[in-house]
Amino acid sequence: MPNNPITRGLSGLAERFATPGLSRPTLADTIAARQRFFGGEAVDPDTGAVRADQAILTWFGCASFAVALGGTVFLLDAWVPRGATSGYVPTTPAEVAALRPAAIFIGHGHFDHAADAGPITQASGAVLYGTAEHCATARSQTNSAEFECVELGSESSKPGDRYDFELAEGLSVTAVRHIHSARTARHEGPDACARVIPAPGVRDMLRYPTTLTDAAQLARRLGDREGGVLLYQFRTESFTLTWHDSSGPLLDNAPEVLEELRTLPASDVHVGAVQGYNQFTNGLRDPRSYIEALRPKVFVPNHHDNWFPLITARGEAFRTPLEAELARIPDGPELRMLLDPDDYVAPGRLAFKLGG
Description:
CATH architecture: 4-Layer Sandwich
Shape: globular
Helix content: 25-40%
Oligomer: single chain
CATH superfamily: Ribonuclease Z/Hydroxyacylglutathione hydrolase-like
CATH topology: Metallo-beta-lactamase, Chain A
Strand content: 15-25%
């Protein structure tokens, strides 16, 4: 950001109301957090272990999810939306850290995806996965660099680059480099999509007024760099989950990514970003290209909620255009629509039996 009076003022506000570091959670904290996020019946009340016969995904705003897959707990992105509002998402970074995830996967480094990555990683003891730039940004968010971060390329890596590794026994991961959402020229003809231009949901700023602490935390992180964009697929013997927190114009700018995605196993559940810059020109054409390549049984939207009311709207605004795009796909997936704020921290919304 340029060094002007407004920027200096925001920086001073941020320093004055800086978010304190997060404490290491106790076992009692972890049991309580996991029961809230994954459901009491899925969590051992003495150990906090999550049952291994299910995949449970719990949304906590924008593109952030807590996941329990085959008993392994991990996070997809690491930001509890706040700053423009406070309390709209009913959790905190401390409660998310209390989940004690084994790993945190960053899709890209903008504030609305990774602003809490460093503190949550440090407090929870998780291993962070992302590009070299994501790792550097996360470390800059804490007073200590004492956490493990696995670098999956860098911002200079090529779209379509692939990284394969094991997260736990019986749980493999593939990361694929892709591109951020971007506006492209209007497409006409049979593949044209209706523009999606919802009115900003500013009423939520009045219903959930922000605090100085939350506004300062947002101000501190507004300039965080993208650092490259990664899509992740998680596979057990009987279940495949794919997630990405941005949907770029692959058809126009990176068709090689679509070629790579088609080589992956078909997804049982695909959780993909639908809000993006190209919605104003080409509607949901870009998200549809990911869905067609990944061939899921179930599609779940993310990054479609009112996380920044000056420029966003509630998820209901995306339901009709998303249904229209899925209807264009032969034998397309079932839509599991998530709607804010009712579907935040709601473990029953996305629970799947492994092998079922």
